[in-house]
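Q: what sequence does this backbone want?
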């Protein structure tokens, strides 16, 4: 499993923080959204995010999948599963995931973001029901 230490060592410091700073430099602003899962909510990570200047939006640990990235992960997972031959080695999987990420049309990402107000309204109407 992934605990806060592994999350920091393998994801935050080498990947997410540099990506966040790159986006913020390009766009002028960026917000990191994480759910309340254990690895994300350690107090040492909160202090580190403050030092890094990370602006954060927190979500609940268990919620409807409103975050557009969830749909992107599903697309990538489906595309990975459909590959022939099957990709099984970790190094290959990482490479293939980068390939899959890069071929997702920007229009698809935009449409997932643009439908958010409608999805949030429906979620509120249903009192958060999935």
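A:
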């Amino acid at each position: 499993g992934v605990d806060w230490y592994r999350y920091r060592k393998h994801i935050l410091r080498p990947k997410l923080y540099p990506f966040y700073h790159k986006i913020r430099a390009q766009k002028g602003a960026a917000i990191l959204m994480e759910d309340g899962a254990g690895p994300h909510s350690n107090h040492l990570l909160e202090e580190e995010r403050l030092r890094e200047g990370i602006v954060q939006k927190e979500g609940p640990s268990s919620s409807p999948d409103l975050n557009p990235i969830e749909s992107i992960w599903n697309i990538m997972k489906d595309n990975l599963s459909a590959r022939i031959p099957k990709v099984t080695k970790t190094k290959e999987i990482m490479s293939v995931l980068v390939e899959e990420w890069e071929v997702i049309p920007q229009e698809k990402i935009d449409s997932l973001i643009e439908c958010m107000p409608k999805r949030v309204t429906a979620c509120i109407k249903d009192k958060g029901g999935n």
